[in-house]
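Ligand-bound model needed. adenosine-5'-triphosphate.
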Amino acid sequence: MARDRVIQSGEESLPPEPLDVPPALVDFNPNDEAHDESLRPQRLEQVVGQKKVVDRIRIMLDATRKRGDTLGHLLLDGPPGIGKTTLATVIPRELGVDCQIAAGPALSAPKDLLPYLTNAGERSVLFIDEIHRLPANVEEFLYPAMEDFRIDIALGEGLNARTINVQLKPFTVIGATTRAGMLTAPMRDRFVNREHLDFYETPDLEEIVRRNAKKLKTTITDEAANEVARRSQGTPRKANNILLRTRDYATLSHPDGQITTEIAVHALGMLEIDELGLERQDRRYLETIISIFGGGPAGLQAIAHSMSLSPDSLEDDIEPFLLRMGLIQRTPRGRIVTPTGYTHVGRKP
Ligand SMILES: Nc1ncnc2c1ncn2[C@@H]1O[C@H](COP(=O)(O)OP(=O)(O)OP(=O)(O)O)[C@@H](O)[C@H]1O
Ligand SMILES: [Mg+2]
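Prediction:
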């Protein structure tokens, strides 16, 4: 049903009868991280778009190298799939230093962070993903490490309690977060460099799609690259995943496996990605607020509960793009579907 609504324009011009749907098209997850590693840019010059951010990072790196210094701590924030991990891993490569990777939620106590800190070589990078999810005690343990390259370890209890200080080598923390707002002020202040990554413009995504098609040894027409880019919610990871699935479809339905516009449009229809780039889950979110909460205002928890999803995944994966497109609004009393949002799912405000 949803599919009928999605394949709107260009429906008449579709090939008569599509071939069997490749399995990959059936359970499509545009946020799948499985292919990130193979398509991830390795050097700064391969990073497409985000020009201002990249320019500033380049200056940071050049100056650091010229001084033979340690890079100042850097915080990267922005929606999922937008290039935070990419930049965080490109930077140590550009500097020619080691990089350790830790995940915020996995560091549940200071002792979990300890090996990373003591292993950190001079000028090396410690990348902490989802840094907003560090527990308070781990955060506090990290402060002196970031500020003075020192850690304070408490030994014993009561009268015998004492603290020993361990000196660390100067190193750089690169933190990534989808929620800069959730970071505590003292944590945020410890980052001298802060960069926000925003959604990509279509021409940048087209460039990413064309480059990756080449990496995948597939040909794609410029028009088809535009179609994929335009419907990727300004997010490289989604563009890459749509490209991969579209390629499957092209392999089966084009004699040379070329991705033409017709094929791209058809594949996007099968993936239930509409003209704006909304996925089934995004439309379900709008429908839920409209049908169950009369269009809102509706609280995040209540919406999440109705959709059987976690509030975090709504806030991270669904809402940012809907907000940006003006389909919903966030008010102190909850989320509201805008008239544009109503129209988009074929309802009257
Ligand atoms: N600027 C870019 N140029 C080219 N490709 C990019 C760029 N940014 C991201 N990508 C592609 O998108 C994929 C996902 O990006 P990345 O893993 O860096 O996102 P992220 O911001 O860390 O997401 P998450 O919040 O989910 O961890 C990368 O593997 C890469 O292929
Ligand atoms: Mg990441």
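The chain has a mean pLDDT of 91.
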